[in-house]
Design goal:
alpha/beta; 5-stranded parallel beta sheet; 8 helices; globular; binds adenosine monophosphate
Length: about 220
């Protein structure tokens, strides 16, 4: 199974991608996590992408496509793309690459969410700087407040979850996403899911959509 998730920052792509991967035994390829790991490793590529990430700007398409190509090419398993593609050129490059590998995308899920729900999700999001697990103070709290369940590290607010950066990320998303959505919609294998509800309820909706899509095939 090879899926891609589209949706604004905070629409639940990361959380739902993890659950989809558990349900269907797939690999989660989250472009934001991949970039942050690169940035934290201070590799040459990490230094190139750092300023874009910290300012809520998109990393240039050629860098992004190359990075994702390296991740996808060695995979034997199916995967869920989360956060990539984010622009029309990325989508076209991805489709070309997967076509050449004879492993085309089988479903694109477009997450849509109520704007008021979205704002609340950002205010409460916390991440572990060590293992990159994501929590939320209301809906997905760690066992001990402010402490990662996996490794005991102190949780932080991501640089790009700060309100002024969030506004910029959502604006960038809306500008770049419309042509991308139109592109995938006309290719087919494209479904929209409303992800405004609580996490477990959204998981049911999402897994159900995926199962039904593959049953109908
Ligand atoms: P995310 O965790 O998906 O919200 O991504 C965090 C940041 O990483 C974004 O604000 C961008 O700076 C960068 N980023 C993530 N995915 C992409 C992508 N597909 N293309 C360009 N930049 C990206």
């Amino acid at each position: 199974m090879r899926l891609a998730l589209l949706g604004p920052p905070g629409s639940g792509k990361g959380t739902q991608a993890q659950r989809i991967c558990e349900a269907f035994n797939l690999v989660h390829l989250a472009s934001g996590d991949i970039l942050r790991a690169e940035k934290n490793s201070a590799s040459p590529l990490g230094l190139q992408v750092r300023d874009f990430i910290d300012n809520g700007l998109l990393v240039p398409d050629d860098l992004m496509v190359e990075l994702m190509r390296q991740k996808i090419i060695g995979l034997k398993q199916g995967f869920v793309l989360d956060g990539f593609p984010r622009t029309l050129p990325q989508a076209q490059a991805l489709n070309r690459m997967l076509f050449e590998l004879d492993r085309p995308l089988m479903l694109v899920l477009n997450f849509v969410v109520n704007p008021r729900v979205l704002a609340r999700r950002f205010e409460g999001r916390r991440v572990c700087p060590v293992c990159l697990s994501v929590y939320h103070i209301d809906s997905l709290p760690p066992a001990r407040p402010g402490i990662c369940d996996n490794d005991g590290a102190a949780l932080i607010i991501r640089e790009d979850d700060k309100p002024e950066v969030v506004q910029k990320r959502i604006a960038t998303y809306q500008e770049t996403m419309a042509p991308l959505i139109a592109y995938f919609a006309q290719l087919g294998n494209f479904k929209t899911v409303d992800t405004s509800a609580e996490i477990d309820e959204v998981t049911k909706l999402v897994l159900d959509k995926i199962r039904r899509h593959f049953e109908d095939e």
